[in-house]
């Protein structure tokens, strides 16, 4: 399975999904850049989630809160206390640092890198500090948000009043968050800079259990609809002794990565802790009809989701899909998520009329769909390159096109080909890519 992990990392770089950040300067630990295909895939994942929350559900509105917030927010939320901290141990010999729970070793056991002994564990706060204003002093200290949900809670009253909402309702947000992780690892699974998709559902406390089950089911179904095999997902009920101090219940949705079962999304019953605590610390009345609504939270990482969809879709087929080549990579990714929807291929590149017609079709399609143009190599080689990145349709312009104004279109999944008029191409693609 570790071999699969390395293959996905290598593939992601080679085909323009994910690059190590600042690579020409030796990189920058745990930071990654999303390349041309990665950014399209990421955009499609966020759109699929946003459509699910805003378009397909009732009574959910959106928000884009600031990354920088008044530091009092983080004091009220508990992030500046010892509660938002990991235990750190350091090797006395090589000075490498680890989260204590990652190495599962109390002080005195051996370092996995050099065999040295560990120091005594100490608390390490995960908040990332910055300075706001021209003078760097205690008064200028601010923090990069470690989660996006606090922006929702502090805007609860603004949104409820401006949108004239009645409980139950939800607020959804997609945005960056930052945590100064001691041991970022496993490619883009655990990084210091990441993106979250969170929805906070505000309801009466008597209905919180019912809505918890509803949202757990909805979130599982979202993954299934986008092509994740049920056998690769499971739910983990977080034991009461491991719950966060504010949580009444928490369930993790876990995926079977090459490095084991790991959390990709959390469903949490946060009770009324967030609204009541911000009301207490800010002095604002954040009640609804005399009570603090309870919160059911769904929280998923964009980067982790992308990792899941890439891992699920990645296949190596011995002999190729035609059975006549060497091992081929096939990215069988859901059509909604596929980073490239269509490619235009002139049958030959030394026939000006064919190339001209192919480029005309390419320019007309790229205004509607993410489209590639490829004229290098045999048609078979080009098909394989497109299968490797999950491109759904390949449109080939050939000698007959110059006579009948039709093209051959190939379906990625079935490999079947059909002839279609150029004037009908846009309509056909719009129907097939819904």
Describe the protein:
Helices cover 31% and strands 27% of the residues. By secondary structure, it is of the alpha+beta class. The chain folds into 3 domains: 2-69 and 144-311, BirA Bifunctional Protein, domain 2 (2-Layer Sandwich), CATH 3.30.930; 85-123, no CATH class; 340-432, Rossmann fold. The longest helix has 20 residues, at 36-55. The two termini are 34 Å apart.
Report the mean per-residue pLDDT as an integer.
Answer: 93
Q: pLDDT under 50 segments (min length 5)?
A: none
**Rg, Å, rounded:** 25 Å
Q: Could you give the distance between the termini?
A: 34 Å
SSE inventory with pairings:
Elements: H1 2-14, E1 18-20, E2 32-34, H2 36-55, E3 60-63, H3 71-77, E4 85-90, E5 97-99, H4 100-103, E6 122-125, E7 128-131, E8 141-144, H5 149-154, H6 156-162, E9 169-178, E10 193-203, H7 208-225, E11 233-237, E12 249-257, E13 260-271, H8 273-282, E14 294-301, H9 302-313, E15 314-317, E16 328-331, E17 342-346, H10 352-365, E18 371-373, H11 379-389, E19 393-397, H12 401-404, E20 406-411, E21 417-421, H13 425-432
Parallel strand pairs: 3-9, 17-18, 17-19
Antiparallel strand pairs: 1-2, 4-5, 4-6, 7-8, 9-10, 10-14, 11-12, 12-13, 13-14, 15-16, 19-20, 20-21
Helix pairs in contact: 2-9, 3-8
